[in-house]
Structures are given as C-alpha cells and as structure tokens.
Specification:
There is one protein chain. The protein is α/β, with parallel strands linked by helices. It has a single domain (3-17, 29-197), classed as Vaccinia Virus protein VP39 (Rossmann fold, 3-Layer(aba) Sandwich), CATH 3.40.50. It is 29% helix and 29% strand. It has 6 helices and 9 strands. It has helices spanning 3-13, 27-34, 53-60, 72-81, 115-127, 164-173; strands at 41-46, 63-69, 87-89, 101-106, 129-140, 146-150, 157-161, 176-183, 190-197. The strands form 2 sheets. A 7-stranded mixed beta sheet has the order 3-2-1-4-5-9-8, with helices on both faces. A hairpin with a 6-residue loop joins strand 8 and strand 9. The radius of gyration is 16 Å and the shape is globular. 37% of the residues are buried.
Amino acid sequence: MQPSEIAESYDSIASRWLEPFLETNGIRQHELALQFRPIGGVALDVGSGCSGRFIQLLASSGYQVEGLDVSERMIALAKTRHPEVPFHHADICEWMPTQGYDFITAWDSIWHVPQDRSESVLQKLCGALNPGGVFIWTIGGLDGPAEKRDESMGTPMYYSVMGIPKTLQTIAEAGCICRHLEYDQWPEKHVFLIAQKASTESASPPAK
C-alpha cells in the first residue's frame, strides 16, 4: 500500500482515535524519553493523529509542538482540539523539515511507511534532530525485514519493518545513540526505541 492509501484507511476510522482507551497509550514511554534532555524546545509529532495526547504532554513540558499526519481527517479533528498547534498534512516520505527539532515522536506511525522508504525516513528524522535531541518511535520487534497487510482495524492497512539490527545500524550511521529499547507489550512484538542525537556533552541518564 502507498501512503495515500494508508491516508484513506485512517480517514475512514479517524474518530476511533478519540476514544478514552487511548488516553494513556504511550504516555509512560514518552515520559521516560523526556528525561533524556532538558525541558523545553521545539518538538514534532509524526503521525500525530487526532487525540493530541502527546502534543498535550509535550506542551506541558515546555515544548512548542508541530503535528504531521498523512490523514486529512485526522488533521481536521486535531485542529479542533489544538487550534494553536501548526499541523502539516503531508506524507512523511516526501515532507522535508524546515528546522531542527529537540524532540521527535513517531508513535505507531512510521511503521506504515513502504519498506523501501523506511531507511530514508528514519535517516531523515534522525537528521532533523538538534544536537542532544531525542527521538521516540515504535517498530515491529523482528530480527529481519518484513511486510504485513491486514484489516484488523476494519480497513486495509500495511506495516513494514527493517529489523532491529538494521534499525540500530541506521540510527548509528545517522549520528544517534540508542538510549532505550523495550518490548513493552510482550508477548506482542511491539517495540519502542529512544534515540538521542550525539552532542558535545554526555547525556544524563533518567532520574531514578
């Protein structure tokens, strides 16, 4: 499936992402990621959807947040909840950042990118980080590349994965360091990673 088809699928089920069960999804993981750098700066939410839960968390932590989503319906719903936030209706494969970011999240989003574009998208997002910037995102926790199509959400959907070794190699080559990797829904192979752009100062570990 192409990103335009993914957009159509999400357009048809956008309102589902306003349901209460999603209010805490990914929040613990983002709170951990936020501890790897000082509070505040400019943030980007890739595949921002319509719930705005990460936008709200980042804004409350002192960030100026931008959202980006390929679904026009998701963007329309998001604007009603956060009219003060600039949203980009765009395909992350084609969109180019116009500034550096101190924090980027791509929660359950860039795994929809076509497999032959996955590496370049990951490189792009790592490259968009300012020195010391933090990036949190999700992948399928497989060892090698794979693609999957299903209709488990009631509409056609596509997923791809490069594999954990290739993912780690890609971020390292892009000047980022893996700070955390976790199978957070085991036995489901849902993995989130936290990476940080190298800087002249050593990153502080999360407070215990």
